[in-house]
Amino acid sequence: MKAVKSSAAFPRLFSPIAIRGVEIKNRIVFLPHLPFYADHHHHPTIKDVYYYRERAKGGAGLIVLPTQIVHPTGSYPGAVDAFDKASIAGWEKIITEVHRYGARIFGQLSHMGNQTRSAEIFRPTWAPSPIPDMTVGEIPKEMTREEIQELVESFAASAENMVEAGFDGIEIKVAHDGILGQFVSLLKNQRNDEYGGSIENRGRIVVEILRAIRNKIGEKPLGVRLGVNRYLPGDYGVEEAVEYAKLFATVADYLSTDTGTWESIDMLVPSMNVPQGFLLKDVARIKEATGATIIGHGRIVWPATAEDALEKGYLDMVGMARALISDPYWAKKAEAGKPEEIRGCLGCNQKCMGRLLQNLPISCVHNPTSGYEEEYGEDILYQKMTVPKKMMIVGGGPAGMKAAEIFARKGNKVILFEKEEKLGGRVYWESSLPGRRGISGVSRYLIHMLGTLDNIDIRLNTEATRETVLEENPDVVIIATGSAIISPSPMFYNTLDALKGQVPGENILVMDNDSTTEGSGIVELFIKEDKIVHWVTPAFFNGQNITAPILLDNFKRLSNKDNLFLHPMKVMTDFKEGAVTLLNIYLGTTEEIRGINSVVVAGVKAPNNSLYYELKESVPEIYIIGDAAAPRDIASALEDAVGLTKLIK
Q1: Can you tell me whether residue 577 is helix, strand or coil?
Q2: Are 569 and 452 in contact (CB under 8 A)?
Q3: CA 421 from chain center: how many Å?
Q4: Dihedral of CA 370/375/376/380: which sign?
Q5: pTM
Q6: Is the dihedral of CA 28, 32, 37, 42 positive or negative?
Q7: What is the pLDDT of residues 481-498, one digit of tens each?
């Protein structure tokens, strides 16, 4: 069957648009987001080059580089310093590669204000008022008028540097982080002069910066990334955002929407539980109020959502960050009329925002090659093998499916054994937990892609043994048999028991050993069943190993529950006749909880690795990956599969 042509499927998405005379080939924008790839001198790196090159190659029309810092007082780890002319050489390399594939590239200017630290800049941090960001906690210095003027000039000078490098346009950040977002905030700006108080006064510095930049960059496009709702009590929402938008649109050529703050991080990077397209009605209000060119966003994952928003006139261009992290070739697949082949963003935030919050370079659970394009870019990962091999993969969970997809696309003959009646493995039980349904996207994508390949033989309801493997005489065997969820004692229950409704009693203790979404999901499951739940973990706080935007999302659903009791920093040492003894492993103190009907243990798994050892000396080449090698998570399973491409030649 012929693929549907893009002109019929998504005509608006793939129509060109011009911003101040700069033509952009389609309406798809790779939104600015800090990938943490800059070197320790705050200059761009080769990692940046390959990262943005891959998205340009994948068909994005416009790429916006994030948070290029305008002044030494605003520097931040992993961010590029725009005030430093030494950054120009690195920018030029990025721009050359982006232009090579027909995309345009803008640069976003910012200053981190109260969201950097004096330890990073060796001086007090700057802010409109001496009010800290609660996620940082450091009290900043209130800026003088002279320092405000210095900041305005630094934006203009940095814009000159970016134009010299060859950027097609400039954007300033008045959004979820950065000093300009702090100036327009109703909470962070408590000034009594001409830069505080009214909407016009709070936005004054933004207008001054826009005019100063315009004087330096001539006819280059100039835009504003504007937060439309800070989602904090007492701070501004869409009503005030409309007024800011009208003010800034008198000078800027376009507005690009943003949402949330570090203090409302669950709305900055909304999870899988926030509806796709959730912000579009607010974006439409900005468009209607200003008539400006609008880059709109709001957890847009699929081309149909983007096309619908364009058709309804909510926006002029579609902004996406995580969607194109998850699939750099999102645009090309949509244009080819193959949206079902898009590796859709899961909304899990685990390796994008999760790694960024640890000051680590970002990547992606669903796309482990993200950030590693130099080694594993699409052309490298799926490059045909010189001598195709017969490969047998045992286990159809995430590791096995990913390995099958990669090596079949590389031209090998692949046989995939799965003992259950369907593929998916741990994806099925994990996506069955409350708040985790989006994880099913891993199976959706891989099952679809496997179905498009005619050189793969999938054998369901077939348990592989040493004999059945050897009968096939494979060149390579990959063991991806996963792990078993176990309980340390027959008197305890586990995650699968909870999901099957097999845990008796009304008073449940959950021993959450690894403090991840597995334990929090079990807790939420029982809370929804109106059980009394004691949530015990050895971590310093419950949910410690869940990335902040997901944890906050979870806690909002679990807050104000009279039937939930938290016991961090503790382990269970005894369970007898309904009484559980807990030990605080840091303080050495104990407590006893009585009336417990059942104990559910989470985070304990054992690798299913016996077949690997049975075959290890009997086949020419054998590997073990995923939970079968070491029980971890879905991200690790997919990483292991990708990593095999370095080993199997």
Answers
A1: coil
A2: no
A3: 32
A4: positive
A5: 0.97
A6: positive
A7: 999 999 889 999 999 999
